[in-house]
Amino acid sequence: MTNANDAAVAVKPDPAGSVPPEQYAPDAIWREAERLLYREARLLDTERLSDWLEQIVDPTVRYMVVSRELRFRKEKRYGQPAEVFMYDDDYDFLKARVEQFHSGMQWRVDPPERYRRLVTNIEVFETGKAGEIAARSNCLAVRTRRAYEIDQFVYCREDVLRRCPFGTLRLVQRRIDFDERSVAGRNLVMIL
């Protein structure tokens, strides 16, 4: 008896995605990617941002958060791009954000915030490049501060993971499709 994931399943490229997946990854690699994404959520939820940066993120990373303009499909009079970059960071920029968090100078961390990230609908694809896979997941991040400050963010992540020289997977690219056109919460000072 064969598992459905063991067979090469053709998948159409996501029209909005940056990584055109061609087939599902084998189960062992799929589980490894799932474990990495779940571990990442735990590290971020428990404010272990330095560990996240050192253990999950590759030094060549590109971390993007984009929002789309929500207009009628038939609307053609605007020539501007439909996507707006909210973040377009590299490793040094992420490191600066982590250092700012730990500096005590960020007003959002006192009193402390609490985070809960739910990562779901994980799909893992082969990219055709040796040692590299693509993962797509949907996320819900809830941020709570004091009794009355609760923010929820829903988004889709398209990640490229690459096997590092130590044998573990590392995040080399993340493209977050942020569902809101503008941030409904108080701010977006957090790592999605």
Automatic annotation (TrEMBL):
A biological process (GO) annotation for this entry?
A: 3-phenylpropionate catabolic process
Region described as Disordered: spans on this chain: 1-23
Asked if the keyword Amino-acid biosynthesis belongs to this entry, the reply reads: no
Report if keyword Oxidoreductase is assigned.
yes
In what pathway does it function?
Aromatic compound metabolism
Query: Signal peptide position in this chain?
Result: none
Pfam families attached to this UniProt entry: Ring_hydroxyl_B
Alphabetized UniProt keyword annotations: Aromatic hydrocarbons catabolism, Dioxygenase, Oxidoreductase
Q: Which GO terms describe its molecular function?
A: dioxygenase activity
The UniProt family comment states:
Belongs to the bacterial ring-hydroxylating dioxygenase beta subunit family.
What protein name does the entry list? Naphthalene 1,2-dioxygenase subunit beta
Protein's organism: Solimonas aquatica
